[in-house]
Amino acid sequence: MSDITVIGLGNMGTALAQALLDDGWEVTVWNRTKSKAEPLIEAGASLANNPATAIQASPVFIVCVMNYDVTQKILSQPNVQEALNGKVMIQLSSGTPVEARESEVWIKGHQAAYLDGEIMVYPDQIGKQDADILVAGDQDIYQQCEDLLYALAGNIVYLGENISAPLAYGWAMGSVLWGSLLGALHGARICEVEGLAVDQFAERLIKSDMETISGAIQDVLKRINEERFGESQGSLNVAADGAERLLKHAHEAGINADFPKYAATTLRQAIEVGLGDEDMAAFIKVLRDRA
Ligand SMILES: NC(=O)c1ccc[n+]([C@@H]2O[C@H](COP(=O)([O-])OP(=O)(O)OC[C@H]3O[C@@H](n4cnc5c(N)ncnc54)[C@H](OP(=O)(O)O)[C@@H]3O)[C@@H](O)[C@H]2O)c1
């Protein structure tokens, strides 16, 4: 019997299994493509021949595969459902909050316990003190698994028993990241077409503007939380006008206009419904009304 099983040895699963071995845990592994297990076996892991024996090998098993559909395919393999009895599953594959809730019901229906988590870092940060993993599930099960979770990341954030919380926060943060990255890419294109150095844009962004941007995001989120939309330093009228000018520039400069078009058409909706004098945060009212 080993301490923990890791199912899925892609970039992330391999990093998780290696971090557990480095921390002194006895690890069993399984992956569809067997060859990916070789470095871990050399480092001391045991290889299971199939998912059922992998799950039987330890009291706790981690699944870290492409997504929940793949997880479900693996859990549908022969003898797995019998092997689940009494085990703890930690799902670290990415999915949606709905999939997390469905998974919890399914796993508990097979007499196993369930934690769901969202890894907030790249594989090369796994096992390090500043790595973040968000986790939710029954508190006693979390406490039972706490030591091994801390082998994976120095910053384990337990979010309580709402099983969909890690994925919901993960996607909320992902939205901020992708929005910012798409904006940065459009910004880089503006620099290119206007003959400015992209590295100077990057330097300026890191030195001073990032603080302003993160302050603005925090202010918007605080206002939404407090339902406080008046007394703004930057009204939606100003933001919408800015977005229209960003779009105008893209047309004038002949560069791709997808990002400014999205910003302009989106913010225009707020003006149309009479929110122009309110703070940018008031745009949440448009989002709440339109599915
Ligand atoms: N990489 C990151 O930076 C990162 C960060 C945070 C979260 N995550 C999450 O971690 C999870 C794994 O990511 P990764 O980077 O390890 O991905 P990856 O390197 O592409 O590995 C994918 C894993 O899924 C398995 N898989 C895919 N389809 C399968 C199927 N039909 N049947 C059985 N196994 C299948 C693969 O098995 P084979 O080896 O046999 O193909 C492999 O073990 C994802 O949900 C990802 O969103 C990743």
Structure description:
It contains 12 helices and 8 strands. It has 291 residues and is an alpha/beta fold. The protein has 2 domains: 159 residues, NAD(P)-binding Rossmann-like Domain (Rossmann fold), CATH 3.40.50.720; 93 residues, N-(1-d-carboxylethyl)-l-norvaline Dehydrogenase, domain 2 (Orthogonal Bundle). The protein has an 8-stranded mixed β-sheet with strand order 3-2-1-4-5-6-7-8, sandwiched between helices. The radius of gyration is 24 Å and the shape is elongated. The protein binds NADP nicotinamide-adenine-dinucleotide phosphate. NADP nicotinamide-adenine-dinucleotide phosphate binds next to helix 1 and helix 4.
What is the gist of this entry?
This protein has 291 residues and is α/β, with parallel strands linked by helices. Helix content is 55%, strand content 12%. It has two domains: 4-162, NAD(P)-binding Rossmann-like Domain (Rossmann fold); 197-289, N-(1-d-carboxylethyl)-l-norvaline Dehydrogenase, domain 2 (Orthogonal Bundle).
